[in-house]
Amino acid sequence: PMEIDRWITSIANLHRSKPQAQIHYRKPMPDIEALMQEWPPSVEEVLRTAKLPTPDLEATLPEFIRIVCGILDVPIYDNLVESMHLVFSLYLEFIENPHFAGRGSHRGPAADDAALVAANADEKSSGGGDHK
C-alpha cells in the first residue's frame, strides 16, 4: 500500500509539473499574464459589493458564459469553448500561482467570487443549474 501511495503521489507531482498544452485559438485572445494583472481599485471595490452570477440566475448556459467572460474581460467570438478554455486556464494559473498559494480562504472576496463563478459555470455545464 505504501508503494502505491508513493507512486500515486509521484504521478500527481509529475502531472502538476508538466507544462500546459499549447492551444492555438482561431482568433486573438489576451495573454494569461495580461488577464492576471491587478484590477484598478474601483473595479476591486465593485467586486467587493456586487453580487456575481450564481446558478440561480435565469440564464442559459451560453448566456451565463457570456456574463462570466464579460466580467473577466475574456473576448467571445463565435466559439464559446475557446473563451471558456481561456477562463479555466486563467483560473488554473491563479490557483497554481505561488503568490496566491498561502492565502487559502483569506484570498479576499474577489478571489472567492471568481472561484464561485468558475464553480457555477461548471455546475451549469454538468446539468446542476436550470437550463432554459
Please provide a brief summary of the model.
It is built from seven helices and no strands. The protein is mainly alpha-helical and 132 residues long. The protein is globular and about 50 Å long.
Give a verbal description of the structure.
With 132 residues, the chain is mainly alpha-helical. The protein contains seven helices and no strands. The radius of gyration is 17 Å and the shape is globular.
Protein traits:
132 residues, mainly alpha, 7 helices
Structural class: mainly alpha
| Topology pattern, helix = H, strand = E | HHHHHHH
The chain-level mean pLDDT equals: 78
For the termini, the CA-CA separation is: 48 Å
Please, how many helices? Answer: 7
Report Rg: 17 Å
* Poorly predicted parts: 105-110
Net shape: globular
Please count the beta strands (DSSP E, at least 2 residues each): 0
Largest sheet geometry? none
- Work out the strand percent: under 5%
The helix content is 55-70%
